[in-house]
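Pilot study result, target chain (249 residues):
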Amino acid sequence: MLDYNDEAATYDASRGGVPRAEAAAAALLGLIPASTRSLLDIGCGTGLVTERIAAGRPGLRVTGSDAALGMALVARQRVGDVVLADARQLPLREGAVDAVTAVWLLHLLRGEGDVRAVVAQAARVLRPGGVFVTTVDKDASHDVGSDIDEAFAPYLVPTPSDGTERIVEYAEAVGLDVVGSARFVGHGQGRTPLSAARGVRRGYYVSRLVLPGAEAERLARVLAALPEPDRRRAEPDYRLLAFRRRTGG
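Predicted structure:
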């Protein structure tokens, strides 16, 4: 499991940097109503996306939250208003904000009930009529029909925690209805066999792959031996879903 406090200093450079963040923010804002005045970005990480959400919608009051102190400290340099908080138990009153966003968060939550709890918290802190926008099927977005995907196939997690059907089910149970979707390109996220091998060895794919015992090293060696080990394969195509909190009982 990655330690996101340790990852904070190098996280952006290893995850596509500004181009990916700009694409994510633009897609998010396309699903956020113009009337929105306050937004909470949960699992904001280093705040790279959060900062661009704020820049893309002048007058929008944007707050970030993250459970890792290292990430939150970096985010505060960009956004200013960032709280250290577990997304499963947000320190906000009910109906506190007009919008909640969660980018590349739900796929990481593998504990029993974790994703359901985060979706419920998003619904709780939203005002009636407010919107929740989140990435879904994050890991599957990286399936681009490459030889890397073929090497990963025997090890895939059978039930991703951010599968679309699962998130829609959790959302409906707490009064959130699907109102839109969008896609954006994961710029800079096209993998090479060597980068994938390094990621396997460092534990980057714990949300996607089951690698008991020596399987991680075995897979890393298979990846490193693929043809054109330094050539980037295609970039992922991420998906967002937007939900609105019901206004009636």
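One observation from the pilot: The first helix runs from residue 4 to 7. A full batch analysis is planned for the follow-on phase.
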